[in-house]
Each structure stands twice: as structure tokens, then as C-alpha cells.
Amino acid sequence: MAATAETPQKQTHEGDGAGLHLRMRTLHPPVPIPYLTKGEVTETDRATTARMPGAPSVKDLAFYGGLGALAVAGALDWPVAVAVGGATWLLRSGRKEKEERQAAGAQT
């Protein structure tokens, strides 16, 4: 009996990732989606907007908008714009509170 040497044959897989077989699992957890009625959305909207301060004045919008535009254009560095805007807001809000206290004191 002659011994025959078997040569291993290389298997090629064409079109399926060069022999890589990956098994993947996809998990789909149940996520409850709440059902909201129009009345609930309206009620929540009213409650939320009641807590918000009034609309800013046109003068304030122009000032802060111009400050932001200067920062975006690069004419003013953004930390400087934030500092100027924050300081202006603090000074204006302090002045408004002082005026409101004086008006309340004058009415009583």
C-alpha cells in the first residue's frame, strides 16, 4: 500500500466577506410611546409659558443680536461678547428691580 499524501485544499468563499462569518443579534426593547391629546399639550404649553418672563424689548433684541453678530463675524471675541452681554443684563435687571421696589413703595 502506498501512502498518499493529502494536500489540504484552500476553500475560497467568493462574495461573502472573504470567509468571515459574523453572527449578529439585534435587540429591540419595548419602549412605551405616550399618547398625548390636544388638550394635554395645550394645558402643558400654557403652564410652561405662564412661568416664562415677558418678551424682551426691541432695544434689547437689537443690542444682544448685534453683540452676537459681532462675535460671529470675528470683530469681537466671544468671551468678550459674553462678558459684555452678561454685565449689561445684570445692570439692567438690577435697575428694573430697583424701579419696581420704588414704584411699590410709592403706591403704599
Short description:
The chain contains three helices and no strands. The chain is mainly alpha-helical.
Overview of the structural elements:
- With 108 residues, the chain is mainly alpha-helical.
- Helix content is 56%, strand content 0%.
- The protein contains three helices and no strands.
- The longest helix is centred in the C-terminal third of the chain and has 30 residues, at 78-107.
- It is flat, with a radius of gyration of 35 Å.
- The N and C termini lie far apart (123 Å).
- 0% of the residues are buried.
- The mean pLDDT is 81.
Largest sheet, described in full? none
**What is the end-to-end distance?**
123 Å
The averaged pLDDT comes out at 81
Beta-strand proportion: under 5%
> What form results from the Cα inertia axes?
flat
State the helicity in percent bands: 55-70%
Q: Structural class, from secondary structure content?
A: mainly alpha
The number of helices is 3
Question: What is the radius of gyration computed over CA atoms, rounded to a whole number of angstroms?
Answer: 35 Å
E-strand count: 0
Identify low-pLDDT runs. Answer: none
Order of helices and strands: HHH
Please describe the topology of this protein.
Blueprint: H1 38-51, H2 58-73, H3 78-107
List the main descriptive attributes of the protein structure presented here.
108 residues; mainly alpha; single chain
